[in-house]
Amino acid sequence: MDTEHILAMKSDSGNIHMFDETDDFIACFCDGKWVRRTVFSYSDLQENFRHMTDDAEILRLLAEARAALAQDSTKMAG
User: Fold this and answer.
1) pLDDT confidence of 68, banded at 50, 70, 90?
2) What does the longest C-alpha to C-alpha distance in the chain come to?
3) What's the rounded Cα separation, in Å, for the pair 48 and 22?
């Protein structure tokens, strides 16, 4: 799978910001959990995050985020 449609950024502290433009999926990893919204400011992303370039890592993290957030949605509905 190609990752050119995915924006994936990571900080040295392990925070992650992901955006998949194919379906407007946004997820951030912060404080040990995935959330379905942007939690980092633009300036924080510019100053403290770097673009991820490893396609395998990007796809793994995107799948992890989607799975975690789908599970959270199921828990909330039940």
Assistant:
1) very high
2) 40
3) 26
pLDDT tens for residues 3-54? 999 999 999 999 999 999 999 999 999 999 999 999 999 999 999 999 999 9
Q: Which two tokens stand for residue 32?
A: 């040990």
Q: How far apart are CA 11 and CA 33, in angstroms?
A: 15
What distance lies between CA 24 and its chain's CA centroid? 12
Q: How far lies 13's CA from each of 2, 20, 24, in Å? A: 27, 22, 25
In the structure, what pLDDT confidence band is assigned to residue 76 with cuts at 50, 70 and 90?
Answer: low
How far apart (Å, rounded) are the C-alpha atoms in residues 57 and 60? 5
User: Rounded to whole angstroms, how far apart are CA atoms 4 and 61?
Assistant: 15
**Tokens of residue 76, six digits:** 């909330």
